[in-house]
Amino acid sequence: MSNLVELINNCKKGNRQAQEQLYRDYSRILFGICLKYSRNKTEAEDNLHDSFMTIYSKIDQFKHQGSFEGWIKRITVNTVLQKYRKEETLTLVTDNIEDEMPEDSGYLNLDLATLLSYVQELPNKYRLTFNLYVLDGYSHKEISEMLGTSLGTSKSNLARARMILKEKIEANKAGIIMEG
Q1: 125 in the same domain as 64
Q2: Which domain holds residue 69?
Q3: Is 83 in the same domain as 117?
Q4: Which GO terms describe its biological process (predicted)?
Q5: Distances from the Cα of 96 to the Cαs of 133, 134, 154, in angstroms?
Q6: Fewest CB within a 10 Å sphere: which of 31, 95, 129, 162?
Q7: Cβ neighbour number for residue 66 with a 10 Å cutoff
Q8: CB-based contact 47:38 (threshold 8 Å)
């Protein structure tokens, strides 16, 4: 643990070797997060780069209280979400859709690579909401605050994401190829 403290302190001083070591130590974990929130591998790589730039610029704000890994994961999620907020206004969905579908929508019976590809194909607002709620365990209230939307929009976006995923999974089982 003292090695981590030393590494963080060296990064705070702007030490390039320490920054490279930090990247080597955490890039795989953070890339997994970026991949989960991105449309494809190239976009995930860009998001990883942006996340590390933010981590390096804000590392002096880490006060060695709580988990460093948790801190950099939070920065990574926030960096990616900020990028999407700038890129695309997450619009209000006015349709009322049932909030919850049965929990076993079939995506638990899919191999991870297939499920990830389906999630990556979702429109941004649905993909972000699905990942934050289902995979990261945020509440609709937290998601609406993070994405700058209403509580109802968060619930509706989750329901739509689940509906789209369910359709893709059912099409997969039936051997039908679906577009986007």
Answers
A1: no
A2: 4-89
A3: no
A4: DNA-templated transcription initiation
A5: 18, 20, 11
A6: 95
A7: 10
A8: yes
